[in-house]
Amino acid sequence: MELARRGESSLRIAAEVLEESGLKVIETSRRITLGGVEAGEVDIIAEDPQGLRYAVEVKAGRAGVSDVRQAYVNALLLELKPMLVCKGLADEAAQAVAEKLGVKVLQLPDYYILLEGEELEYAVREAVADTLSKALAAASALGELAETLAQSQDMEEASRRAGCTPRELAAALSRLRREGKIPRKTSFKLLKLAAQITLLKSSLAERLSRIEEEIAEVKEALRKIQNEHS
């Protein structure tokens, strides 16, 4: 479902690029049927100011030979002109094939990213999940450093709280990295998050322990009451 939404947003952006280039979008996701059987799909049908219609294939990155061939075949099946919207052709072979088959290439600027709200949300979720995964992996390895890191804003402050030099603190963290206990590429912010998770887990564990003790006391009191009335 995520991939489907991401594909739809790419088509919307490509359609905007086509219209900015003077073409009119006639249809999107056009199915190709032969003898009642579905044989493929074309991303966009567009028309230029002279009335020529194109079967447009959209490629988020650079297009290779197979992409050029696909654009040509789909256009041929629909009896339209072939076009590719992409970040350019991948190599000289793709360029030669495009010229030979007459596939028009509309190149997106390097700074143009096929990215919309759904894709941005997806990317942010993936980044957050990755960060949390790394933080959780490091949380159990910080030990006595957890409280120091959680209360500090940077390495210098953390070293002061720990009563050591920044170099000594960095050496201790490097040792944990070498031992595989924390990720190798770990920023101070991620270590602080890991430390905060460690303290939170410790606090929750203490609270749960107290609750279990109170429940045990209540059970014991109830048992005594039952014994007195039996």
How would you characterize the overall build of this protein?
A hairpin with a 2-residue loop joins β1 and β2. The radius of gyration is 30 Å and the shape is elongated. α2 packs parallel to α3. The chain folds into 2 domains: 2-107, Trna Endonuclease, Chain: A, domain 1; 125-228, Arc Repressor Mutant, subunit A (Orthogonal Bundle), CATH 1.10.10. Helix content is 58%, strand content 17%. The protein is of the alpha/beta class.
* CATH-derived topology of the largest domain: Trna Endonuclease, Chain: A, domain 1
Average of per-residue pLDDT values: 81
Spatial arrangement of strands, main beta sheet: 1-2-3-4-5
Number of helices: 8
Q: Quaternary status of these chains?
A: single chain
**CATH structural architecture of the largest domain:** 3-Layer(aba) Sandwich
SSE run = HEEEHEHEHHHHH
Gyration radius over CA: 30 Å
What is the makeup of the main sheet?
5 strands, mixed
- Beta percentage is 15-25%
* Broad shape: elongated
Give the CATH level 1 class of the largest domain: Alpha Beta
* Tally of DSSP β-strands: 5
- Secondary structure: helix percent: 55-70%
Give start-end ranges of low-pLDDT stretches: 1-6
Structural class: alpha/beta
State the separation between the terminal residues, measured CA to CA: 62 Å
Number of domains: 2
